[in-house]
Specification:
Layout lengths: L1 E2 L38 E2 L6 E2 L6 E6 H5 L7 H4 L6 E4 L9 E4 L10 E2 L2 E4 L2 E2 L6 E2 L9 E8 L12 E7 L7 E9 L3 E12 L2 E12 L8 E15 L2 E16 L6 H6 L6 H5 L3 E16 L4 E17 L4 H4 L8 E21 L2 E21 L2 E2 L2 E2 L5 E23 L2 E18 L9 E17 L4 E12 L3 H4 L16 E14 L3 E13 L2 E7 L2 E6 L3 E14 L3 E14 L3 E3 L9 E3 L11 E9 L4 E11 L2 E2 L7 E2 L2 E14 L2 E10 L4 E2 L1 E4 L9 E3 L4 E10 L1
C-alpha cells in the first residue's frame, strides 16, 4: 500500500503527474462502422434553450449514462470529475453531503452546498438563504446534469457562484422496464428499477433505488431509498403539464467523522473516538412535489408556471464535549430540524425577429420560502452519551426571497450574438425564539441586490466560437451564520453583510466536425465582504465580513471520438484563490480572534490544480473497458494555511459486456477503483475547530453488477 501524507507545513509546487487514460470499447456483432458522433447538445441553463456551442458561458453536460453506467450510480461527485472548474468530492460519509464547489465558490462550506445553486427539473433544491443539498438527486432516472459556471450563474440570484441542474428523462415509446443490481467492497449494495413509457398524450418515468453499505471505517454504515417520478401530459402542441415527485429516506447514517493529521498518518481506516462515544449519526427524510405548466400564447409568446412544496426532517447527533455543552450559550449536541419549504416561478418568453435579427426575451418573477423549526438538545443524559437530552434551543428560522429577472439574447450581426440580463433579489431572514423567556433571541434582517450580467459571442468560423462575459453576484449569510453575534449577546448577527462579487470570463469553444469538441476559458472573481469564521466559543461559531478575496484561473476540456469506438476526454483547472485583505481569526476555541491571516494566504478547500483524463473503447453492444485518472494538488484546510491535504493521483478501471437477448438487453460490468491502492484524503472539513480536517478515501475497492432492460 502506498501512503499519501494528509498534510504539509507549506504548499509544494504543483506537478500534474501521470494521468491514466481510458478506453471504453466494443467488439462483437454490433460494432459501429464509424466513430460515434458528438451530439448537438441544447442546454436550458440560461433559460433560453440554445446549443451549448452558441452560448457565451462555460457550460458542461454530464449525460445520464455517465451517472449510472459502470459505476455505483449513487454519488453525483463520482461522475462529475471530467467537468472543468467543478470540484466534486465524495466524503464517503453519508451523514454529510457531497462537497461541491465551482471555481472555488462553496469550497468553504463544512456541510451541505453553499455558493452553488441546485435545481432538479427546474425546481430549486437550494433554499432562499442559498444553502442546499445534492444528496436527493436520483441518478437512475436522469437524462443529464447541466453545470453552468461563470458570470451568467448570477441570473439565479443569491449564492449563484455556479448552477447545477438535473433533468429527469422523459418517457418514450415503446416502454421499457430496467432493473439493476450491484455488489461491491465494504458491503456495498445497489438495486433499482426504472419504468418509462409514452402512451398517447401522456408519458412517464418512475425510478426507485436502494443503496446500503457497511463502510471501510468503523461506524460508517448507511442506507438510503430514493424515488423519483416525472409525468408529462401534452394537452396540445403548445401546452404541457409536468408533474414531479421525489422522496428520499436515509435512516441512521453513521458519521465516522474526520481525522487529524496524526490519526490519518497512523491509520486512515480508523474512526475518531468521539464518534463512537457519542454515536454520531444522522437521519434524513425528504418529500417534495412540483408542477410545471408550459402554455403557448401565440406563435411567438409562451408562459411557464412552476410551483413546488416539500418537507424535510433531520435528526443529527454530534460529538460536542459535555463540558462545552454546559456553557449557557451552547445549543447542545443534537440538532433537530423540521422544515417546510416551497415557492413558485412565473416567466414570459418571447421569440421572434426585430429588424430581421433574431431576438429571444425572458422575464419573470420567483418566490421561495422555508420555515424551519430548529431545536437543539444535549447529547447526553447523566453519564449516558449519544442520546437526546435537555432542550437547549427552540426557534423558527424563516427565510424568504422574491426575485424579479429579465434577460434577452439578440443577434447583433450574422456572426455576433449579445446575451444580457439583470436580476433583483430581496432575501429576508426572521428568527422567532421560543426558548428564552424574554424571546430576545428573535430578530429579522433583509438584504437586497441587483445583479446584471452581459456576454457577447463571436462566431469566428464554423468550428471556432469566441466569447466574453461579465456579471455581478452576491451571497447572503445562511441562517447558521446569522444565528450568533460575536459579542455573545442574544439576537441575530445584524452586522453581517452579503459578500458581493465581480465576475469576468473570456473563452473559446472549438468543434471540428462531429467528433471533436474543446473548450478553454480564463476567469477572475473579486469578492468584497467575504464571510469567514471569527470565533468559536461556548458551543458557538460566529462570523464576520473579512474583506476582499480573489479567485482567478483557467480551465480547459477536450472530447475527441476517433478510430471507430475510441473516445478521449481531458479536463484541467488551474485556480488561484487568495485573501487580498488580512484579518484575524481563532485557531481552535477562543472568544476573541488573535491569529493573523496574512494577505495572500490561500483560501481553504481549494486546490490549485485539478486534472482528469479518460480514454475509451466501446459502443452500444459487445465488450467495453475503461481506465481513468485524476490528479489533485495539495489543499489548504484552514485560513492560516498551517495544514494541507496532500496531493494525489488516483486511477480507476472498468469493463463489461452488453448484448441483446430477443427484446431484452443485458449488461454486466466490473469496476476497480483506486487500482494502485493509494491512501489519500477524499475530502476536507474546512476550518474544523478540533483539527480533524481529513475525510479518508478508501484503498483499492471493487463494484460490479448487471442490468436487464425489457422492452
Amino acid at each position: 500500500m502506498t501512503a499519501s501524507p494528509p498534510f504539509r507545513t507549506a504548499p509544494a509546487n504543483a506537478a500534474l503527474g501521470a494521468l491514466a487514460i481510458a478506453c471504453t470499447g466494443l467488439a462483437g456483432p454490433a460494432r459501429a462502422a464509424a466513430p460515434p458522433a458528438l451530439s448537438d447538445i441544447v442546454i436550458t441553463a440560461t433559460r433560453i434553450p440554445t446549443p451549448a456551442f452558441d452560448v457565451p458561458a462555460a457550460i458542461a453536460t454530464v449525460p445520464g449514462a455517465r451517472l449510472r453506467t459502470d459505476t455505483l450510480g449513487i454519488n453525483f461527485a463520482d461522475a462529475a470529475q471530467g467537468v472543468p472548474g467543478l470540484q466534486a468530492r465524495n466524503q464517503y460519509n453519508y451523514a454529510q453531503d457531497q462537497q461541491i464547489s465551482i471555481r472555488g465558490a462553496g469550497a468553504e462550506s463544512p456541510f451541505g452546498v453553499r455558493g452553488v445553486r441546485i435545481y432538479q427539473d427546474g425546481i430549486p433544491q437550494s433554499g432562499p438563504d442559498g444553502q442546499g443539498q445534492i444528496s436527493q438527486f436520483n441518478l437512475g432516472s436522469a437524462s443529464r446534469v447541466e453545470v453552468l459556471e461563470g458570470p451568467f450563474s448570477a441570473l439565479y440570484g443569491n449564492s449563484s457562484g455556479g448552477v447545477i441542474q438535473l433533468f429527469t428523462a422523459p418517457g418514450t415509446a415503446p416502454g421499457s422496464v430496467r432493473t439493476d443490481i450491484g455488489f461491491g467492497s465494504f458491503g456495498a449494495v445497489r438495486a433499482g428499477v426504472d419504468a418509462e413509457d409514452a402512451v398517447g398524450k401522456l408519458d412517464y418515468n418512475l425510478d426507485f433505488t436502494h443503496f446500503s453499505w457497511s463502510g471501510f471505517r468503523p461506524h460508517q454504515s448507511a442506507r438510503s431509498e430514493s424515488f423519483n417520478g416525472k409525468v408529462d401530459y401534452t394537452f396540445s402542441r403548445r401546452n404541457r403539464l409536468t408533474i414531479i415527485a421525489n422522496v428520499l429516506s436515509r435512516p441512521g447514517s453513521n458519521d465516522p467523522q474526520g481525522l487529524t493529521a496524526a490519526q490519518f498518518a497512523a491509520n486512515p481506516d480508523q474512526t475518531s473516538t468521539s464518534a463512537t462515544e457519542f454515536d454520531t449519526r444522522k437521519t434524513l427524510q425528504q418529500q417534495e412535489g412540483g408542477l410545471v405548466y408550459q402554455m403557448g400564447l401565440t406563435a411567438h409568446q409562451s408562459l411557464r408556471l412552476m410551483g413546488y412544496y416539500g418537507h424535510r426532517t433531520v435528526l443529527q447527533f454530534l460529538s460536542i464535549p459535555v463540558g462545552a455543552q454546559h456553557a449557557p450559550t451552547s445549543s447542545g449536541g443534537v440538532i433537530s430540524l423540521d422544515r417546510d419549504f416551497g415557492g413558485g416561478d412565473a416567466r414570459w418568453i418571447w421569440k421572434g425577429h426585430v429588424a430581421d435579427r433574431a431576438l429571444s426575451w425572458v422575464t419573470g418573477v420567483s418566490y421561495d420560502t422555508q420555515n424551519e423549526l430548529r431545536r437543539g438538545y444535549n447529547n447526553f443524559l447523566g453519564t449516558t452519551l449519544g442520546v437526546e437530552g435537555t432542550l437547549r434551543r427552540n426557534e423558527n428560522d424563516i427565510a424568504r426571497n422574491i426575485d424579479e429577472y429579465t434577460q434577452a439574447e439578440f443577434s447583433l450581426a450574422p456572426r455576433w450574438t449579445l446575451t444580457a440580463g439583470v436580476r433583483h433579489s430581496e432575501v429576508r431572514f426572521i428568527t422567532e425564539d421560543h426558548f428564552l423567556a424574554t424571546g430576545n433571541g428573535s430578530g429579522a434582517i433583509s438584504y437586497t441586490a441587483t445583479t446584471p450580467v452581459a456576454g457577447v459571442l463571436y462566431k469566428a468560423s464554423r468550428w471556432l466560437h469566441l466569447y466574453a462575459s461579465f456579471g455581478q453576484g452576491f451571497r447572503t449569510p445562511v441562517s447558521s451564520e446569522l444565528a450568533y453575534r460575536p459579542d455573545g449577546l442574544a439576537g441575530l448577527n445584524l452586522a453581517l453583510q452579503p459578500a458581493r462579487s465581480n465576475n469576468g470570463e473570456i473563452g473559446a469553444k472549438i468543434r471540428v466536425g462531429r467528433t471533436l469538441s474543446a473548450t478553454i476559458a480564463a476567469f477572475d472573481t473579486h469578492t468584497s465582504d467575504e464571510i469567514v469564521v471569527v470565533s468559536n466559543h461556548g458551543g458557538r461559531s460566529t462570523y464576520e465580513n473579512a474583506g476582499r478575496t480573489r479567485r482567478s484561473g483557467a480551465q480547459a476540456s477536450l472530447d475527441y471520438r476517433f478510430e471507430r469506438d475510441w473516445r478521449l476526454e481531458l479536463a484541467y483547472t488551474y485556480l488561484d484563490a487568495i485573501y487580498i485583505d488580512a484579518y484575524k481569526t481563532c485557531a481552535g476555541f477562543c472568544s476573541t480572534p488573535y491569529v493573523q491571516v496574512p494577505a495572500g494566504n490561500r483560501m481553504p478547500g481549494i486546490p490549485r490544480d485539478n486534472a482528469y483524463a479518460r480514454l475509451g473503447w466501446g459502443g452500444p453492444l459487445g465488450w467495453h473497458a475503461s481506465v481513468s485518472g485524476q490528479y489533485m494538488s495539495a489543499i489548504p484546510v484552514n485560513a492560516t494555511n498551517s495544514e494541507y491535504a496532500g496531493a494525489y493521483p488516483v486511477f480507476n478501471v472498468s469493463g463489461g459486456y452488453r448484448t441483446l437477448l430477443g427484446t431484452q438487453r443485458l449488461e454486466v460490468f466490473l469496476r476497480v477503483n483506486n487500482v494502485l491502492n493509494r491512501r489519500y484524503v477524499g475530502a476536507v472539513i474546512v476550518g474544523q475547530v478540533n483539527g480533524a480536517y481529513f475525510e479518508p478515501a478508501p484503498g483499492l475497492n471493487v463494484f460490479g453488477g448487471f442490468t436487464v432492460t425489457i422492452g
